[in-house]
Amino acid sequence: MSKSMAPTDLTSAADAVAVRKAISSVSRPPPASALSAALTFGWRGMLKVKHVPEQLLDVTITPVMFVVMFTYLFGGAIAGSTADYLDYILPGILVMAVLFTTVYSGVALNTDLTKGVVDRFRSLPIWSPAPLVGSLLGDSVRYLMSGTVIITLGVALGYRPEAGIGGAVAALALVVVFAFGLSWVFTTLGLLLRTPSAVMNAGFMGIFPLTFLSNVFVEPETLPGGLEAFVDVNPISILADASRGLMQGDAHASDIAIVLIVAAGLTAVFAPLTTRLYRRG
Amino acid sequence: MTTRTSLAIEANGLVKSFGETLAVDGVDLAVRAGSVYGVLGPNGAGKTTTIRMLATLIRPDSGTALVLGHDIVAEAEAVRRAISLTGQLASVDEDLTGRENLILLGRLLGLKRPAAKGRAEELLDAFGLSEASGRLVKNYSGGMRRRLDVAASIVITPALMFLDEPTTGLDPRSRNQVWDIIRALVAEGTTILLCTQYLEEADQLAEGIAVIDHGKVIAEGTPAQLKASVGTGALHLRLLEPDQRAHAAQMLDQALGAVTLAPDPAGLSVSCSDADRAAEAIAELARSGVRIADFSLGQPSLDEVFLALTGHPAEESPAEERPAEESPAETVPGELPDPEQERAV
Description:
Chain A is an all-alpha fold.
């Protein structure tokens, strides 16, 4: 068939002259630096929070419910009064809320992989871990938001950190740093499992018991021996202790150090693993 | 004929398998710089895997390829600086707006923020997407999404662009728009490797075509050569009076060759390689009193091309060519097509 069979329809939707002009009007700059590429991907993560705020809602509502339920249902029974228990549980719930959010980093990555956009990212001349580092930087902002919601709720319910705002901010910062390290575990999971819901299930199957088998909700002294031993070495207990300490102004430097070392260790192992899996496609 | 420097793609013996499935089995390609080169084949033939190797997304198991003079394995970074990829699924972020997608790519490709914004506006205007620029891409129509996809590929104009089935699933109008954009790109000097399932698309756009089946190139040449080897297709007729079909079939059989009766009681078709002879046959039918409702001389379909080249119709191979292809459990071993997946002709 002759080529004139296909009528030129460009004028209605795309202007042929403008298309040709757009094609020729730009010259190639040097590609973005590693930092700039990672920050750009962080910006992408922020845009997603803006366009799909439900994501944030999902992971905030559960901890909010936990604060309210545990404080008023069990607070009196566990700690003698709801006010005392709130003092104990709030820094713990902060840890839980932020760590639960990290599972979604893996879910988001897995969702990305099912779409064509990842192929485009991988064909760009950029630092190859940039999409991953950037997403986690973006996610860290989500962790901050989720943590802020919990602290604000605590204050509204009568919680007063002895170390003041500075202590609360320091606790939040420490939790977010740990979450950044932990989220590499879930991005690895996100690249290994087939579907976003499989990542979600596997993620929560891990993080849920780990969070409950810690000192987030109860003093470990009340537990049977074996369990108490486990709870004492659970990094989440140490993180909860450190965050309580920072908020009350009596944190142990050793707790903070262990938290930072674990976060660095997780990053050192799982960040390269994630990058390799991601590059392999 | 062509010298090495004028080749945008030069692939020799590319092989890639996923688990037991051999997706690409020794593909050679030579694509002249500044041309559109079509890779024609059914789903699962190995087109997407070939593109993914050339675009440095996956490494070939064996074989070599130079893209714009750079080795796809050893100099992957240099290749990435000169190409862009428009994948089979639209390669844009559905959870962002059209404008945000273009700014994102501009920033990643090294434009400063104001330049990236300006570039995004320019492309949105040129591609007729200004009005939709603030809407999330998941609310775009198929045609708009494809235009955005192509726009995203030329935020910085690439020397070589991979287009994987750019018009699959589009209505004819959107398809023509995409074709016009491709022509504009070529006019500005970009080389395009176009994967398609449609012979007509390759014919409209490509200077050379490779037909690929079960991971191998089974025919190569210009569209004219390819069509000459398979015939220009078929003359399809529909009569006003079904009663006259037997008579018409007999006449056509004598004039042009074996006639196929369509399921439509008034329809029939005959393979025909010559428009003049088809016209004569129609005129003769009319003279003999057969009343014709409509007729068309169609391009050979992909199935007809495959039938002519391989003796079997185009089949969908079992290996689905998506990222999941690399997990062995997902792929079905063996090269034999699953009968349930055979394309309905």
